[in-house]
């Protein structure tokens, strides 16, 4: 898929393969990345009974402290996933649908940036999988792809909505395509991240500047004192 994902929070949940829909028995990996503390986040999800559980507590296998893998996914694995720190901070959340349908729509799980290109793919479990497909947004036909693909070359906010695709084998579930403005407002978590990372460098620069200034003052003072001593010695001679 041709798009640039955006994640403005302290931690970001990455999904591989990057698709909001999966077939039954597909595998998916989820991992948390954090600019400040990559080991302090855990993958969580809403379960079908309405509870919130960590990876390996009834779903998934923890491949590391901050990563989780679901092998042989079932429709019951459909839901909302996110990363959460020990202090209760949360990352972006993503919605994943696991279906028994014969057709799925491959669309990005995270928002795409306004102005970028995004390719939607209609996949089937048959061979070949790139069958001609119709694409729908909010229930309306918006295009047909002869090879099962449709590209939006410059995404805008008006492209945000529910998408699905259809082949002669059936239609996919719907998935929400989110579009992020190109120049988003600075969020509080991102601002805090910049402050935490930037303040030490700023303080170090200020301290080094003060040390350099003091050294120059001392050097000038010593030079002036030596000059005065030379004048006194000349007068004495």
Assess the beta-strand content as a share of residues: 35-45%
Q: Give the mean pLDDT.
A: 83
Please tell me what the overall shape is: elongated
- Strand tally, please? 19
Tally the helices. 1
- Cross-sheet strand order for the largest sheet: 2-9-8-4-5
Helix content: 10-25%
Instruction: Tell me the major beta sheet.
Output: 5 strands, mixed
- H/E series: EEEEEEEEEEEEEEEEEEEH
Radius of gyration equals: 28 Å
Give the helix/strand class. alpha+beta
Between the first and last Cα atoms, what is the distance in angstroms?
Answer: 88 Å
List low-confidence stretches. Answer: 1-6
What does this structure look like?
The chain is of the alpha+beta class. Helices cover 21% and strands 39% of the residues. The protein has 1 helix and 19 strands. It has a 5-stranded mixed sheet, with no helix packed on it. Strands 13, 14, 16, 17 and 18 form a 5-stranded antiparallel sheet that branches. The protein has a 4-stranded antiparallel sheet with strand order 1-3-7-6, with no helix packed on it. A hairpin with a 2-residue loop joins β6 (61-64) and β7 (67-70). The radius of gyration is 28 Å and the shape is elongated. Mean pLDDT is 83; it is low at 1-6.
């Amino acid at each position: 898929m041709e798009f640039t994902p955006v994640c403005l929070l302290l931690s970001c949940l990455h999904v591989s393969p990057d698709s909001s829909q999966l077939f039954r028995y597909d595998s998916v990996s989820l991992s948390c990345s954090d600019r400040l503390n990559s080991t302090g986040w855990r993958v969580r999800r809403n379960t079908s009974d309405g509870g919130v559980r960590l990876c390996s507590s009834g779903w998934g296998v923890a491949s590391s402290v901050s990563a989780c893998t679901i092998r042989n996914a079932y429709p019951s694995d459909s839901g909302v996933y996110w990363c959460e720190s020990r202090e209760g901070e949360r990352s972006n959340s993503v919605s994943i649908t696991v279906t028994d349908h014969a057709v799925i729509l491959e669309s990005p799980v995270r928002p795409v940036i306004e102005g970028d290109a995004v390719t939607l793919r209609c996949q089937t479990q048959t061979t070949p999988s790139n069958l001609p497909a119709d694409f729908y947004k909010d229930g309306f036909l918006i295009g047909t792809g002869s090879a099962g693909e449709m590209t939006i070359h410059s995404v805008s906010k008006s492209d945000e909505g529910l998408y699905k695709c259809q082949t002669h084998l059936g239609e996919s579930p719907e998935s929400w395509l989110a579009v992020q403005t190109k120049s988003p407002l600075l969020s509080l978590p991102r601002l805090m991240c910049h402050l935490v990372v930037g303040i030490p460098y700023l303080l170090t620069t200020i301290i080094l500047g003060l040390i350099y200034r003091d050294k120059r003052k001392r050097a000038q003072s010593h030079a002036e004192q030596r000059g005065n001593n030379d004048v006194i010695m000349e007068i004495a001679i």
